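User: Please run a holo structure prediction.
Assistant: Happy to. Please share the sequence and the ligand.
User: Here you go; the ligand is tryptophanyl-5'AMP.
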Amino acid sequence: MKRLITGVQPSGIITLGNYSTIKNVVKLQKDNPDFDFLIFIADLHAITVNQDRTKLRQNIRNLAAMYIACGLDPKKTHLFIQSEVPMHNQLGYVMECIAPIGELERMTQYKDKKVKQVNGINTSLLTYPALMAGDILLYDIDFVPVGDDQKQHLELTRNLAERFNSRFGETFKIPEPLISNVGARIMSLNDPHKKMSKSDPNPKSYISVLDDENIIKNRIRQAVTDSEGVIYYDVEKKPGISNLLNIYSFISGDDINTIVEKYQNATYQQFKEDLAEIVANELIPVQKRYNEILKSDILDQILDEGRDYAIKLAYKKIMKVYHKMGIGRKR
Ligand code: TYM
């Protein structure tokens, strides 16, 4: 049986970019009914920057509901909250012990985030990828579906696993990243050279899965394009239109060539109107399901089951790791 894991930080907004990864996971689940799916809310990662406790609690719950609303099958998914499985911290610490500081300092996400933290940075922002490696290596994972921005963290995870295995003996499975060819990097709507990000201070740069219909449509209508007036895919020359084609493709499931052909004689305005309709039609039903799930009591049952399942696997692995390293007592 193949096993898969992925996580999202509960930092408030779930953008169209995050949604593309979740949608990819939903598709993987439909195509591979025999895979074991572990999905978690990365709340320990969220506290690398300061959070408001009331909002954070709410965001954790909301994100869990969102996963199910996006179409993950709750009967086939082990959904859990990272902080409820303490072995994540335990293995994260072990990973810190085999990760030279220079390797962590080279992570581009760390370098980007570092410059944005005006009030100084927390140590955990640097050690974050070691925790992320722990998240994955605890579970003998085959595949990790993520967006393009997590590629470097996945490479580090693989390196750390290989290093541990060669130093202490075969312990970890080496995971493969699964980066979809559409939707892996959704760009900002007002600056298509930047990744769409929930931490962007300008709300016109992103669509939140929970935005209302008018906002969703207006964001697409106002997306920055170019003045050429012809629709085709070229990330260098036409980053705005290429981004919209990517969004169209990951939501509709049509490949980019088919979409380009369909709109070869259309204006940007006609193309954007259709895309606005497609995105709204995709997200409105998700919002409806999301509100229903939040009102019901199934969420806690799902999260309890997920936590218990994860703890069972993770306990075995951390004990094996401690044993290989010679910490604790011989058992
Ligand atoms: P996070 O919360 O930043 O993002 C969650 C997922 O969304 C993807 N993503 C995007 N995909 C396409 N276009 C975008 N503009 C875009 N922005 C974000 C991310 O690649 C990610 O897949 N470190 C992770 C959470 C994490 C994790 C893990 C993931 C912690 N441990 C173990 C997988 C396995 C993060 O901060 O994701």
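The longest strand covers residues 3-8.
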